[in-house]
Each structure stands twice: as structure tokens, then as C-alpha cells.
Amino acid sequence: MNPYPFKTFCERIDGLPARNVLTAVALERQTVGQDLALGRAQPSVDTASILTFCRFLEGASQGALTLDTILPTGQWEFYRKTFERLAAAGELPEEVRKDFDLAFPGRSRPAV
Q1: What is the pTM of this model?
Q2: Phi, psi of 69 (to 5 degrees)
Q3: What CA–CA distances, in Å, run from 6 to 89, 96, 98, 102?
Q4: 59 near 31, Cβ under 8 Å?
Q5: Coil, strand or helix at 76
Q6: E-assigned strands of the chain?
Q7: In the chain, what's the furthest Cα-to-Cα distance?
Q8: Residue 61: how many CB atoms within 10 A of its CB?
Q9: pLDDT given at position 13
Q10: How far, in Å, CA of 65 to CA of 84, rounded?
């Protein structure tokens, strides 16, 4: 049984104010990593995706975009929405927002 299904992660992050998301994903990354190391969780697509996104947001908050793996297509929209929410709230540097659109043009939403 995997204690880190993607849906639960989404609900937890969506329910937080933008100012709390970076702290929450840092804690989530630590918890998932520890649980995997101690055998309390099994590696899965969800755990890999969650850890990747947590590392991605950590880097983005420091002004660097790094995505060390491809995120599952079905999960990309949540990650995009979360990134945009954090950028709009000023939780991520503005240059990272521009870099995001350049780095992932096929995933970007068209300008309105």
C-alpha cells in the first residue's frame, strides 16, 4: 500500500495558501524520502513524481529551474497550476516564471 497517492498530495497542496506551499512541499519531500528509506513506503510513479516536483519547486524558489525527470502527463496540469499560483503570489522569483514558459513551451498555456 502506497501512503503517497498523487490525489492526496494534490488535495493537501491545493488546500494551502500559496505562502505555505513551499514549506509544505519541503516537509513532504523529507517525509516521503524518509519513508522510502525506512521501507514505510514503496517506490512508485506517485512517489517519484511528488519528489521530483518538490525538488523542482525548491530549485525554482532559489531562482533555478531543474527538472530531473519527465513528470507524468496526467499530473502535469496540477503541477503547472501550482507553479502559476506560487508565481502569481510572489512566492517564486519572476525570472523563474519566464524561464518556466521557455523551458516547457509545449506545456505552457497560451497567453490570454
Answers
A1: 0.81
A2: -160, 165
A3: 24, 25, 27, 26
A4: no
A5: helix
A6: none
A7: 47
A8: 17
A9: 95
A10: 14
Joined grid coordinates for residue 112 = 490570454
Q: Do the Cβ atoms of 43 and 36 come closer than 8 Å?
A: yes
Q: In whole angstroms, what is the distance from residue 41 CA to residue 32 CA?
A: 8
Q: At what angle do helices 73-88 and 45-61 cross, to 10 degrees?
A: 20
Cell of 86: 506560487
Cα–Cα distance, 48 to 56 (Å, whole number): 12
Instruction: Find, among 77, 17, 20, 19, the residue nearest to 53 by Cα.
Output: 77
Closest CA to 92 of 10, 29, 25: 25
Q: What is the pLDDT of residue 73?
A: 78
DSSP letter at 42 equals -
How does residue 29 score in pLDDT terms, banded at 50, 70 and 90?
very high
Instruction: Decide if pLDDT at 43 tops 60.
Output: yes
Contact between residue 33 and residue 52 where contact means Cβ atoms under 8 Å apart: no
The three-class DSSP label of residue 102 is helix
